[in-house]
Amino acid sequence: MPWKESSVMDERLRFVARLLDGEPMTQVCRDFGISRKTGYKIFDRYKEHGLEALKRHWGARKIRELLLRRLPGDIRVPANSTIHAVLHRHGLVAPPGRPRRRATGTPLSNGSAPNALWCTDFKGEFKLGNGRYCYPLTVTDHASRYLLLCEALQSTREDLAITAFERLFRERGLPDAIRSDNGVPFASPNALFNLSKLSVWWLRLGIDIERIKPGRPQQNGRHERMHLTLKKETVRPPGTNSLQQQARFDEFVREFNTDRPHEALNMKCPADVYIPSRKLYGGLPDLTYPFHDRDICVTACGRICIYRKKINLSTALAGQRVGIKEVDDGIWIVSFMRYDLGYIDLEARTLQPLDNPFGPRLSPMS
After folding, report:
1. What is the dihedral of CA 122, 204, 140, 236, to 10 degrees?
2. To the nearest whole percent, how much of the chain has pLDDT over 70?
3. Residue 52 scores a pLDDT above 60
């Protein structure tokens, strides 16, 4: 629509509405015939000093109503939860009235002490002598290079991995953080924040999750180097069956930890450096949300129900309790543990996620 067909205010509203709805700045600026520099100037001015509606005493519902009144019917106005999330992101709404410790997407940690960081991965699958495939699940302590686990599993299923990790936690205690790649079962590419049931379980145990960037195996370099040695010494040729292969893995773990010196450890063996964690595994602690209005259990299909309205969250959170708090008329914030996930718009029955509280949003295609 040419500039002369509407007021300057209406054009700016149309411009900002499309940005709030998630359209890229480049495309919107191209459609309006302005430069990206001008577009960012308009958007920044709108966020900081613009319409009266953006002041704190205007909520998302009122802003949306103003947009509906002023914009032509062919312009798609964002949902209340989307508008509230934008206001939240730019500090234009008051935060929920509770102490907050939102994760900010920290970079990969140094893991300089035993149990500060464990690294895990599946070494590439291979075929055993009996024709069945073996999927070795491995876990190392980053600081000491100690090989904590090398388990011959029949697949990468989450239940098998959880069982293996539970045995490991009972034996060695809990780490502060676990680093993995973005593959299953450590992450789920289509789930909210790429969470999987395994990573949710880690979070419940108080373990931070770290993920390397896709295509950057060097970010788990120590673990990858161990895999090269493991492959060379245990699978060429492979065992006849999984029991025979596990016996080879067990012998490799013993030799790797107690006999093999490492230059990075001043020629000490990993067993000379590693000590079990003081954080003992005792099952899952209870979840409470004293600063929320209420807590709700996520259904098996990944939904929560508020006032008989069902909102999709994630099947990775199935069975978990989340806290909800009304922060505006019809707008609720939903949290898992200490992490704020996003805003729920009851009218639209949608969740508008916030920035990933568990680290940089890493998808297999990024």
Report:
1. -20
2. 86
3. no
pTM of the model: 0.71
State both tokens at 310: 């069902």
118-273 maps to which CATH number? Answer: 3.30.420.10
pLDDT of amino acid 43 = 79
CB 245 within 8 A of CB 239: yes
- Torsion angle of C-alpha atoms 276, 280, 281, 282, degrees rounded to 10: 160
Length of the chain: 366
Using one digit for the tens of pLDDT, what is the confidence trace for 341-352?
Answer: 999 988 888 898
Decide the pairing of beta strands 208-211 and 339-345.
unpaired
343 touches 81 (CB < 8 A): yes
Domain boundaries, given as residue ranges, for the chain: 7-89, 118-273, 294-353
Q: Name the token pair of 118.
A: 């464990």
CA dist., res. 322 & res. 320, Å (int):
6
Angle between helices 60-70 and 80-89 (to 10 degrees): 120
Q: Give the per-residue SS3 of the chain.
A: CCHHHCCHHHHHHHHHHHHHCCCCHHHHHHHHCCCHHHHHHHHHHHHHHCCHHHCCCCCHHHHHHHHHHHCCCCCCCCCHHHHHHHHHHCCCCCCCCCCCCCCCCCCCCCCCCCCCCEEEEECCCEECCCCCEEEEEEEEECCCCCEEEEEEECCCCHHHHHHHHHHHHHHHCCCCEEEECCCCCCCCCCCHHHCCHHHHHHHHCCCEEEECCCCCHHHHHHHHHHHHHHHHHHCCCCCCCHHHHHHHHHHHHHHHHHCCCEHHHCCECHHHHCCCCCCCCCCCCCCCCCCCCEEEECCCCCEEEECCEEEECCHHHCCCEEEEEEEECCEEEEEECCEEEEEEECCCCEEEECCCCCCCCCCCCC
